[in-house]
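In the previous chapter we treated chains in isolation. Here, by contrast, the input contains two separate entities that must be folded as one system, with a combined length of 564 residues.
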Amino acid sequence: MNDLVFFLNKGITSGLIIGSIYALGAIGLTLIFGILRFAHFAHGDLMTLGAFVTLILAAALAALGVTLPLPLAFVVMFPAMAITAVLAIGLDKMFYKPLRQAGARPVVLVMASVGVTLMLQGVIRLFAGVRSRDMFVEAPKEIYRIPIPGATRKLVVTEPQILLMLFTIVAVIALHFFLTRARLGKAMRAVSDNPDLARITGINTEHVVWATWIIGGSLACAAGTMLSMDVTLKPDLSFNILLPIFAATIVGGIGQPYGAIAGGFLVGFCETLAVFNWSIVLRPFKDELWFDLPSNMSLVPTEYKLMVPFLILIIVLIYRPTGIFKGRVL
Amino acid sequence: MSLLDIRNLHAGYGAMSILKGVNLSLEAGEIGVIVGPNGAGKSTTLKAIFGMLNITEGSIHFDGEDITGIGSEQLASHRISFVPQENNVFPTLSVHENLEMGAYIRRDDFSRVMDHVYDIFPPLKDKRHQPAGELSGGQRQMVAFGRALMIEPKLILLDEPTAGLSPMFMSQIFDRVIAINQTGVTVAMVEQNAKQALAIAHKGFVLAGGQNSYTDTGQNLLNNPDVAKSFLGG
């Protein structure tokens, strides 16, 4: 029983957490790809930027002596999402829109987004330094230890982890209704399907582009904030998870928001389960096993975690070249 | 005053000029058909109407307004609908959503128009919740027509509506064009199947080398031995 709880703590919870973060990031990437038709490399730094906006707001409130029943960082994340959305539109206006208007090819926009990545990283380091920061400015994070009958080990979940899961569920449902019910949401799908026809039909492409950055930017802020609440905030935090998020986007099918969610969780789970120490779960059966249990038996050493998303990517693409949900061909 | 009046239009992509003096005018309620050999500038003429090309000379007037060089996104607000030859539906959107997108610029209640479209194209009503990309070629063409009708256009531009369709669908499409026209919509259509198209046309425009070579009523063009010899295959 203890071993099962250990598996729930280290395998399932971590998988859900990292999967949610990947999903939130991948939704933005896939929408940007579907509508603006380029791979937005600066998405990871948009996440970090959003997390820093949250931190600044939280620190400001904490300095004013505000206390709330929920962690300050979580509460101020919502205004921070709005600010990040505005910043994302600003980045688009300043860097991507002029290129689009000049009729630049997608690869030029990809290069521009790599430039924006470097620029954002520089700006963040310039103002915030390189040290890691705790998002819990007012009080340490709450950790719930839930006793499980028949086990001495307890189920451990932290408050930010619960908030993250709830937020992801709400965000996904809201996105679903937006894309299938709202006029602007349907227009986004229309532009993603066929931009020329959308323009002829009279769909205001500018509004659709704004909506894309608002959704992409605010979800990036949420993902960055939640990730740094789960661990700590570092300037290169989200840049390190950019590649798995790309893998999740492609695995799910490029341009497919539901694919991005599925891809995010698939990559997240595979990653945590690959580095999970299976010998602990197998220990109760060690007498029946034909081999000696090593003390650490994970499929992939933690240092090589990054290869897992790409392994999944290759396997999925061999059998479904356009991703789980039929996506666009690159 | 003609509804659509294109005068001495010179246009092209970049420096390359394709149209070298096209004249085309349609009265409200007419069907105009543009025919001619490949590369004559038929589709280009349609595309020039909404600013997909560089217009170097000439003018386009619609309903008394100068619309020379308007962008494609302003087309709908002038109540002009364009049905491209291919990629003319939103494939992952349902049939119903395709029609809704057709009415995107409308803020009023358009359910009556939607019912009307389902009346003209009954197969669409049964498949309204199916993604448009899963329909057959003929049904996709119906979705494209329906989408274009949602703004209750004054003018509808059709780029080779029968391209790639079987002969059975072809005559169906021509019947729909007549039906749409009879509700008062002016139609400007580019067609490869010149004979059938000219047969339903009030006006025909034979283009060659980016210029009008013959302009007459559809029937007169069909009866003109020179046109028949050079463009209609005898």
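Chain B has a mean pLDDT of 89. Strands of chain B lie at 4-13, 16-26, 31-35, 54-62, 65-66, 80-83, 155-159, 186-190, 203-208, 211-217. Compare these points with the single-chain example from earlier in the chapter.
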